[in-house]
Amino acid sequence: MRGATVGQPLLKVEGLCVDVSIQGGEYAALKDVSFTVQRAEAHGLVGESGSGKSLALRSLMGLLPSNARVSAGSAYFNGTDLFANNGRNFRKIRGTGMSMVFQEPAVALNPIARVGTQITDGIAQRKGWSRKQAREYAVHMMQLVGIPHPELRVDAYPFQLSGGMRQRVMIAASVACEPELILCDEPTTALDVTVQAQVLALFDGLRTELNAGILYVTHDLAVVSELCSTISVLYAGQLVESGSAAEVLGNPREEYTRALLAATPRIDEPGQRLRSIPGTTPALRDRPADYSFAMRMADHAPDSLSIPEEH
Amino acid sequence: MSTFQLAQPASENILEMRDIRVEFSTGRGNDRRKIVALNGVDLSVPRGTIHGLVGESGSGKSTLARVLTALERSFTGTVVFNGDELPVRRTKEQRRHIQMVFQDPYSSLDPRMTIRQSLAELLRVHRIVQSRDIGTRCLELMDQVQLPARALDSYPISMSGGQRQRVAIAKALALEPSLLVADEAVSALDVSVQAGIVNLLADLRDELGLSVLFIAHDLAVVRNLCENVAVMYRGNIVEDGDTERLFTEPRDQYTRTLLSSIPRIRY
Ligand SMILES: Nc1ncnc2c1ncn2[C@@H]1O[C@H](COP(=O)(O)OP(=O)(O)O)[C@@H](O)[C@H]1O
Ligand SMILES: Nc1ncnc2c1ncn2[C@@H]1O[C@H](COP(=O)(O)OP(=O)(O)O)[C@@H](O)[C@H]1O
Ligand SMILES: [Mg+2]
Ligand SMILES: [Mg+2]
Predict the structure, then answer these.
(1) Shared domain check, A265 and A194
(2) Considering only CA atoms, which of B242, B248, B162 is closest in space to residue B201?
(3) Which chain A residue has the Cα nearest residue B196?
(4) Which residues are A13's β-sheet partners?
């Protein structure tokens, strides 16, 4: 079943445009974004907040907010056009073919179902497992995401667990069905570094052992460097540069990528003064049609008349 | 602690906390449990330095910060500040010297007041400067946190996360503290903005001689910013000392686990 046609990428996104309507006006949140994810590949999608990372992932899951829509472009998963067929293709693929790990666990867990049941919901049915088998698998998955004493917690309800635990349960639930493609939206931001390392190892294991593709959204270049072999950099809804992790992080072509790297503290190069990026990504309504990072830098140039917003 | 610091006279430390213990009880009836949030913690901060405090969530970092800033008053042990032991009930003057900055700056800003109004009120209530000098002092504070003077007439809602954090720092500095406690103050910011706040804290240390207890979970930031680091684990400080020493020759098992978990840019 797994890995249909050889040579065909697992996910191919081309010319993706997402528009958001705000108070009667439509604004471009993603403009002509293209990238691919191969089987057994982890691809990082990085950028500051407001760059459109979450909208990109949500459009691939058919989970855009009601005021946002895909206005152009295509996304093929295993050759299936995700945006065709009026969104019915999503339902087929969600859960088994493709699953998403959200940043905020509250939105993804059912408050009135036991966490063990939520983890094994999809796969137990598909594999025809007994309750005992499903429970054992849930405990196993909880262990993999670093939940201490999973056998004591497998029957708990979400509210009985701490925020960090809930986040790990959600990660376990998303990967338990062994999806071919995992979409991750900053899933480790709220976790301790030691747990983050475990979760990254879990994702890497799914990639190497099950050939899963991973699309990993984050603003953390170090995390991307650990997990991903290819990277796309997004700024204000536009693809700035993409390539192998070594190229993008080791020898960036674009000024924006260089600026992000210069702002990131290096554990291996302490004592270097960091360089912040002046200003912020403008809100959708404040982006001219031809907006680019160069405009942000020009706005905040030392001799510019406008007053800097950030240093 | 390194031997170098032990050799210094006590007053070289702006802060010495000794054997601090905090317990909470939670639940009722059969569920009643005692949580030892701080289990006899010792921590010294040399004057004019930034001291990092790291450790997993729930290890007791915020509780320590709350003891330090008198928000938590049920504790045993002693807090020696500037050579004097602080009583459990501190005077206004004693509280003024230790100021705190939180992760979410919005919570400490009054949405109905302009930045100028907030700062002026603080300066007036604490009688920091004479009335006629309040305007000048507000401008100086904006300068210290590297915000344009124009920001004085803005409301918090119109500011970005990074700008609000600068205002929160300005409010702390308005009281002319000697020690700033930053509890995850940069954790919620984009790296592009975080870099500016990290640089600002380094500048305040270098230019004003401010001492800072910097609580964070990003170890790369801590290694870049802090002279010393303390590592907390389950209510205990398991290792404390010179940052470079700790990162290159960790002695404690938990510290080693922590360091080996740090993601790094490998290119
Ligand atoms: N439902 C929505 N309504 C209005 N604006 C939105 C909505 N969703 C996202 N946006 C805006 O679109 C831009 C991109 O958002 P998002 O994809 O969440 O960015 P990121 O995940 O990179 O931080 C931001 O400017 C955000 O404010
Ligand atoms: N007001 C409180 N009541 C009960 N338990 C508390 C309270 N405050 C903190 N704790 C507990 O004390 C421990 C330390 O918490 P905290 O100091 O917030 O840790 P950190 O800041 O390192 O994440 C945790 O187990 C926490 O649940
Ligand atoms: Mg997002
Ligand atoms: Mg805390």
Answers:
(1) yes
(2) B162
(3) A276
(4) A35, A75
Distance from CA of A101 to the nearest CA of B (A): 20
Q: What ipTM was estimated for this complex? A: 0.88
Q: What is the CATH number of the domain that holds A61?
A: 3.40.50.300
For residues A81 and A217, membership in a common domain is answered with yes
Higher pLDDT, residue A80 or B30 = A80
* Distance from C-alpha of B111 to C-alpha of B106, rounded to nearest angstrom: 8
Query: Dihedral angle at the C-alpha atoms of A213, A219, A225, A226, nearest 10 degrees?
Result: -70
Chain B CA closest to residue A279: B193
Q: How many domains does chain A have?
A: 2
B256 → chain A, closest CA residue = A194
Instruction: Say what the pLDDT of residue A306 is.
Output: 44
Nearest ligand by distance to the CA of A163: 2
Q: Do A74 and A198 reside in the same domain of the chain?
A: yes
Element (H, E) at B52: strand B50-55
Determine, yes or no, domain membership for A286. no
pLDDT interval class at B5 (50, 70, 90): very low
The Å distance, Cα B225 to ligand 3 centre, comes to 27
Long-range contact pairs involving A304-307 (C-beta distance under 8 Å, separation at least 24): A307/B148, A307/B150
Taking one residue from A and the other from B, the number of pairs with CB-CB distance under 8 angstroms is 127
Residues B176-235: pLDDT tens digits? 999 999 999 998 899 999 999 999 999 999 999 999 999 998 999 999 999 999 999 999
Chain B: closest CA distance from residue A112 (Å): 22
B61 phi-psi bin (left φ>0, alpha ψ -120 to 50, beta other): alpha
Structure tokens belonging to residue B30:
């059969």
User: Which residue from B192, B195, B258 is facing A193, i.e. has the nearest CB?
Assistant: B258
Domain that holds residue A135: 108-176
Residues of chain B found within 8 Å of residue A261, distances taken between Cβ atoms: 265
In the reported structure, the alpha carbon of residue A193 is separated from the centroid of ligand 4 by a whole-number distance in angstroms of 14
> Which domain-ending residue is among A150, A176, A202?
A176
Ligand 2 closest atom vs CA B22: 12
A205: in domain: yes
Is any ligand 2 atom within 6 A of the Cβ of residue B62? yes
Q: Which of A82-86, A216-220, A288-292 has the lowest mean pLDDT?
A: A82-86
Query: Does the distance separating the beta carbons of A196 and B265 come in below 8 Å?
Result: no
Find out whether B190 and A49 touch, Cβ atoms under 8 Å.
Answer: yes
pLDDT in tens, A227-272: 999 999 999 999 999 999 999 999 999 999 999 999 999 999 887 8
